[in-house]
Amino acid sequence: MSNDSDSSDNAKVERLDKEAAAVTVVESGSDDSYALGPGAAWRTGEYAIFFAYSLRQCNKLPVLGGFLLQFCVAGPVTAFGVFQDFYSSTWLSNFSQSDISWIGSVQLFIAFGLGTLAGRLYDYGYCRHVLLAGSLVFTISFFMISLTQPQRYYQVFLSQGLGLGIGYALVYIPTMTVVSHHFRKRKALGMGILVAGGPLGSVIFSIMLNQLVHHGPGFRWAVRAVGFVVAGCFGLGNALIAIPPPSAASTHSNASTSIKVIWTDLPFILTLISGFVAQLGTFFPIFYIQVFASGHGLSKSLTFYSLAIINVSSIFGRIVPNFFADRFGVLNTFIICVGINGAVGFLMLLASHTAGLVIFCILYGFFFGSTISLYMPAVAYISPTKANMGAVMGVGITPVGVASLIGPPIAGAILGSELIWWKGVTFASVVLISASGIEFVARYLRHRSTS
């Protein structure tokens, strides 16, 4: 009976994959890398080679709609290290590092934990509505941070932890899925370019916040200034992102079948576990690098720019490895980058002087970026079904959300009020190396099952 059920599910999945592959697309030119045409692909995050081609062919600069949306949501969220430093020293100084890190981890948990819902809504044809709703929620919540009062933890938690998390969730997975649908080839590179909007936003917003908070009008107007930039980019991004029509295979019953199949596929499950384990440790330096630099007596200017250095390096880390992933294999590249990310994490213990901190930020930023940007292409690659990719990607990002909730507070508790750095660094690095090993097993099982 079980075998008959499995055969029936597999037959349904094969039919769904064929329907998904049969969706009508617009071809332009001879390059089939652009499933909806070069213009649509570029507007949602195309790569630099086609950018140069577009400049030669068009009289106006193509605007990256999806890139701008990632810039708006991931930028302020991954700049949380600035908030962590300011809250712990001034705004929420009555609370522990672990208490404050819960704000950042909750926003990531909600952002990724609601991925399945956002992905389902994408599959059912509500992508535009979801993006607009997410943009509105994120913008309003960000402005609400400027209205919070010092030492009122719940106010910051509600606006930044819950509000930004919900807005992020409604934007992140739909934009990732849009790019996944636009590209037939070079999918990893296209998705890497898209998520590079996040660290670019983090660089700009972390510098803005540090300068305006410490050398300008103060915290409230610093947050409002960033909020105005975010609102403008949201408007432009939503206007320009190209959304493909829903697949004929994207129905409620078909989505349920796809979800059932992926939850019974061991390589896919191991990839989810790998993403969960990696996320437990990868954000530790992002949250604590400014606290680390300040505690070791480094200059204030270098302390403020440390997070920006990580995020600048992360931009290249989200593009270069993804370029090679399309040539040498997504899983191969992901395994190597996650393992190196863990090894580089130990170098944080040597970053107690200027040169050491700069070198660490550059190296960690690069491999942190690759760990983040290669995970979703790995999920898409190893998935046993290619239908209902919104739901598949939503399932893929959910374990990352859970790890985002508990990872930073666990690291903060291990770090302790005495800031015993070797404990926190060891925890973060070991879990990253473990994640690389788990993904290696997933790759082995997938290749064995297809050979």
TrEMBL record:
Transmembrane segments: 61-80, 100-118, 130-147, 153-176, 188-209, 221-245, 266-290, 302-321, 328-351, 357-378, 390-414, 420-442
Alphabetic keyword roster: Membrane, Transmembrane, Transmembrane helix
PROSITE patterns for the chain: MFS
Subcellular locations according to the entry: Membrane
Keyword Methyltransferase: no
This protein's record includes keyword Transmembrane helix: yes
Bilayer topology: Multi-pass membrane protein
Protein's organism: Pholiota conissans
Highest classification ranks of the organism: Eukaryota, Fungi, Dikarya, Basidiomycota, Agaricomycotina
Family of the protein in this entry: Belongs to the major facilitator superfamily. Monocarboxylate porter (TC 2.A.1.13) family.
GO cellular component: membrane
Protein name: MFS general substrate transporter
Chain ranges of the Major facilitator superfamily (MFS) profile domain: 267-451
MF-aspect GO terms: transmembrane transporter activity
